[in-house]
Design a protein that fits this description.
CATH class: Alpha Beta
Number of strands: 11
Strand order of the largest sheet: 7-6-8-5-9-11
Number of domains: 1
CATH superfamily: Bacterial extracellular solute-binding protein, family 7
CATH topology: D-Maltodextrin-Binding Protein, domain 2
Structural class: alpha/beta
Helix content: 40-55%
Oligomer: single chain
Low-confidence stretches: 10-23
Radius of gyration: 23 Å
């Protein structure tokens, strides 16, 4: 039967529409994190999203959810393992709920500079062995991004352990962090990041500890104006993908996603490092009081029992980490 011209045009239009839908269909992948929109984590996630879309020729689009919209760090990692979200980025200590040995990366004062931190996280054989355990827990690490050194913001001046006594400090749920802050003399309060500003403002806690970028983007200095540069923990943020998502990707798309994550790392690392002084100056201009020279030796002495406590629980892993960190400090000043 010969088709009339209008019917022929209609059939061709349907075929064209089907082709167009096929050509431009995308799979949406969710990237959840707890940073604010103006933070370095958000900037890196947005660049990662663009690279994934480009490197997969539009087959995948990454939708970024900042500001704890889909959950705090523990919830994000839980959802990552279950396949509820596809990507997250968080401190190594946050992943310790699934990989307990990663608590050891939070031991105090083992890294002294960004250059040392980058070398340790890029070259540590011990750390690679821990990261290799992640797929069995439901996620895998793609690259190590940056958060920076953790510092204190408090309502009152803080210069050493004597000033910490009787003060309640907010931190995130991490065993090693709790041990060292308690050793310094603080009382500890665990709470989600979005609740911290109001908790300080209302006096429920005396302050909190976080990297400079996080302090600035959350404006904690407004309610806890004493910013003390303790640099007690170096805190990079490994970026991870759900293992369920990874296994659904073709080999080519796995390569594309891994490439995007790795390519973002230098940008994100340098953004944090280069912005520290700029952000401190901005906070100072808005009333923050920056203590650049607290009694670091007193803090170091106060946390000495933490290493022995860690050995009691984690055994030889502690000395493996300390040995590698010591070698890095010797090689990189």
């Amino acid at each position: 039967m010969k088709l009339t011209k209008p019917i022929t045009q209609f059939v061709l239009a349907l075929a064209g529409s089907a082709f167009a839908l096929s050509a431009y269909s995308q799979t949406i992948l969710k990237f959840s994190h707890t940073d604010q929109q103006q933070g370095a984590r958000q900037a890196a996630a947005q660049i990662f999203a663009k690279k994934v879309e480009e490197y997969t020729q539009g087959r995948y689009k990454v939708q970024v959810f900042c500001c704890s919209q889909l959950g705090n760090d523990p919830k994000n990692i839980e959802q990552l393992a279950l396949g509820g979200i596809d990507f997250t980025v968080s401190a190594t200590g946050s992943y310790a709920g699934q990989l307990p040995t990663l608590n050891l990366t939070m031991m105090p004062f083992i890294i002294d500079s960004y250059a040392q931190g980058w070398k340790f996280y890029d070259e540590s054989k011990w750390l690679k062995a821990q990261f290799d355990k992640a797929p069995a827990k439901g996620f895998r690490f793609l690259a190590t991004w940056e958060a920076g050194f953790r510092n204190m913001t408090t309502r009152d001046p803080l210069n050493g352990p004597d000033d910490a006594k009787g003060k309640k400090l907010r931190t995130f749920p991490n065993e090693m962090m709790r041990w060292q802050l308690e050793a310094m003399g603080f009382g500890i309060q665990i709470m989600p990041l979005p609740e911290v500003y109001l908790a300080i403002q209302q006096g429920a806690v005396s302050g909190q500890e976080n990297p400079i970028d996080t302090i600035a983007s959350n404006k904690f200095y407004e309610v806890a104006p004493h910013v003390t540069l303790t640099n007690h923990v170096y805190s990079p943020i490994p970026m991870a993908i759900s293992e369920k998502t990874w296994q659904r990707l073709s080999a080519a798309d796995q390569k594309a996603v891994q490439r995007a994550a790795i390519e973002v790392a230098p940008f994100q690392r340098n953004m944090i490092k280069d912005n520290d002084e700029k952000l401190l100056a901005e906070m100072a201009s808005k009333g923050a009081k920056i203590n650049r020279k607290p009694n670091t030796e007193a803090f170091r002495k106060a946390v000495e029992p933490v290493y022995a406590k860690a050995r009691e629980k984690y055994g030889a892993d502690v000395d493996a980490v300390l040995a590698e960190a010591a070698a890095v400090r010797k090689a990189v000043k």
